[in-house]
Design brief:
Layout (H helix, E strand, L loop, with lengths): L1 H17 L3 E2 L4 E2 L4 E5 L3 E7 L2 E7 L2 E5 L8 E7 L2 E8 L5 E7 L2 E3 L6 E8 L11 E8 L5 E6 L4 E6 L6 E9 L2 E10 L3 E2 L3 E6 L2 E6 L3 E2 L10 E8 L3 E8 L6 E5 L4 E7 L2 E8 L3
Parallel strand pairs: 2-8, 10-16
Antiparallel strand pairs: 1-3, 3-6, 4-5, 4-7, 7-8, 9-11, 11-14, 12-13, 12-15, 15-16, 17-20, 18-19, 19-23, 21-22, 21-24, 24-25
C-alpha cells in the first residue's frame, strides 16, 4: 500500500511539473517589457506577430524584453504544455505616414486634394486607439484652412478644396507635437472674364487681350492658348491661336469691313467687337 502511494505521489509531482501554471499580464504595450509568472522551470515558447522565441526559464517571474514584444497583436506563451494568450497594444503615436495627392491642382476646385494619414508608434505599429489628426492647407501669406478628423483603426482621411491663391500650398498633418508636411502646387484655373481690344495696323487688325486671369484673379501661365476669331458674311470664319506671353495674348487678323471679332480660351468666351472698316 505504501509503495503504491509513493508511486502515485511521484506521478502527480511529475504531472504538476510537466503542466506548470503560467500567468500573463492583463495588458502589455508594444516596445515595453512585461513580466509573466511560471510555477516551475522549463522551456518557454513565445509566439506572436513576427516573433518566435524559445528560451529556458526558471520558476517565478520571467521578464519579456521590449524587443520580445516589439509588435502589437496577440501572443501565445507556452511553458511545459501550458499556454496562455497575451494581447500587446500599440504604444503612443510617434510617427505619421502622410500621403497627399495630387502634387499639382488648379485653384478654387472642390474636393481635388486628398490626404491620408497612418498613425504609428515607434515600432511602426498602427495605433488603433481612437484619436484625431489635424489637417491644414494654405498658401504663404494666406490663413490656412484646418480640419480635425477622427482616426478609425489608426487611419484618418480627408478630401479638401484647393485655395483661391496660386503658389505652393503647405499641406500638413499633425497629432500633438508630431507634424508632417507636404507641398501641393496650386496653379491658376481656366481663364475667366476674357476681354480683348482691337485697332488697325496697316491692312490688318491688331487684337490683344487684357491681362488673362482666372476667376480668382490669378494670372494664367504663359503658354495658355487663346483663340481669336473673325467672322464675315463674305469670307466666313478665320481663326488665329495665340499663346499668352507675360499675361497677354496678341494676334493679327485681316481687316474685313463688317467683321465680327471674338475671343475664346477653351470653353470660355470673351467680348465681341464689330469691325466697321475704319
Amino acid at each position: 500500500m505504501t509503495k503504491n502511494f509513493n508511486t502515485l505521489f511521484i506521478i502527480l509531482a511529475l504531472a504538476c511539473a510537466a503542466y506548470a501554471q503560467i500567468t500573463v499580464p492583463q495588458q502589455a504595450t508594444a516596445g515595453e517589457s512585461a513580466t509573466l509568472t511560471a510555477s516551475s522551470g522549463g522551456t518557454l515558447y513565445l509566439i506572436g506577430p513576427g516573433t518566435a522565441i524559445k528560451r529556458d526559464v526558471k520558476s517565478g517571474e520571467v521578464t519579456l524584453s521590449a524587443d520580445d514584444l516589439a509588435y502589437a497583436g496577440r501572443y501565445t506563451a507556452i511553458v511545459n504544455g501550458n499556454a496562455q494568450s497575451l494581447y500587446v497594444s500599440p504604444a503612443k503615436p510617434q510617427k505619421l505616414s502622410f500621403m497627399a495627392r495630387p502634387s499639382r491642382v488648379p485653384v478654387a476646385q472642390p474636393n481635388v486634394i486628398s490626404g491620408a494619414v497612418f498613425v504609428l508608434d515607434h515600432n511602426d505599429n498602427l495605433v488603433t486607439q481612437p484619436g484625431a489628426v489635424k489637417f491644414e492647407l494654405g498658401v504663404t501669406g494666406q490663413a490656412p484652412v484646418s480640419q480635425s478628423v477622427p482616426t478609425k483603426d489608426g487611419i484618418a482621411y480627408i478630401r479638401a478644396a484647393s485655395g483661391k491663391r496660386e503658389g505652393p500650398a503647405q499641406f500638413t498633418a499633425s497629432v500633438g507635437d508630431i507634424v508632417v508636411r507636404r507641398i501641393v502646387q496650386q496653379v491658376a484655373s481656366d481663364p475667366c472674364n476674357l476681354r480683348m481690344k482691337a485697332q488697325r495696323s496697316g491692312n490688318d487688325i491688331a487684337v490683344e487681350t487684357e491681362p488673362v486671369r482666372d476667376c480668382s484673379g490669378n494670372p494664367v501661365p504663359d503658354g495658355t492658348i487663346v483663340t481669336f476669331i473673325e467672322t464675315t458674311n463674305e469670307h466666313g470664319k478665320s481663326t488665329v491661336d495665340a499663346r499668352v506671353k507675360h499675361g497677354i495674348a496678341k494676334a493679327m487678323l485681316p481687316a474685313q469691313p463688317g467683321a465680327t471679332l471674338t475671343v475664346a480660351s477653351g470653353v470660355v468666351l470673351g467680348n465681341e467687337i464689330r469691325w466697321g472698316g475704319q
